Amino acid sequence: MKTHLKYTAAALALGLGFTGLSGAVMAEHHGKAAIEAAVMSAERKDDEKARDANRKPAEVLAFAGLEPGMVVLDINSGGGYYSEILARAVGDDGMVYAHNGPVYWAFVKDEIAKRYEGRFDNVELIHGDSEAVDLPEGSVDLAIMVLAYHDYYFQHEARSTPQADVPAALMSFRKALKPDGKIVIIDHVGPAGADAEAMNKLHRIDPALVKKQMMEAGFTLAAESNLLANPDDDPNSSPFAPEIRGKTNRFIHLYKKAM
Fold it and tell me: Do the Cβ atoms of 227 and 56 come closer than 8 Å?
């Protein structure tokens, strides 16, 4: 069954009792309603819904400003936890690029099609030999990268170099974004000043490094959120340790394309 959600601002206003609202406020309510419906969908897997309490996808996507009809790039989307929610939320008039770079593709390539096949017409799987994307210039409203930035420094046989060409990847995202496009980055907080070796070992990253690299690639930091913060998490511990998995201290950055 193909499952998409479609809303109109007028119908939403009547249904929820919002009248006399500005276009911006109406769009915000419109977006939040679509996100909530997508997250609550009965067609989502129970094991993924169980992860929502720690991942807070509805709050994250509201922070990102997701709205129906958007074109979204899910960077290193892995098995598709976020891509499925995004596909439902943007609806028939939007679309989602479920991207995986060479390392992530090596892990998901044999199973990923099962998630989308026959279920979503608005999802396109994209992957390649590098972390950069080749999408039409100025075509993407929103990009999101969840718990994946640190993996640019993960050493794996699927990658021809010890680490990814991060500047090239970031510049490709910038090119794909519309002039008012945004990108949200979420990752495990690592120790300050962590180098490539530490990031490869810990699967964490220093938020300051992300800010530096994003600004060098032509982005400006528009907002930060502590929605997924956990001050009790040790930045030198493994995010896969049973006692902390799913509950790590995670930063959320919202960047805009600098003009």
Answer: yes
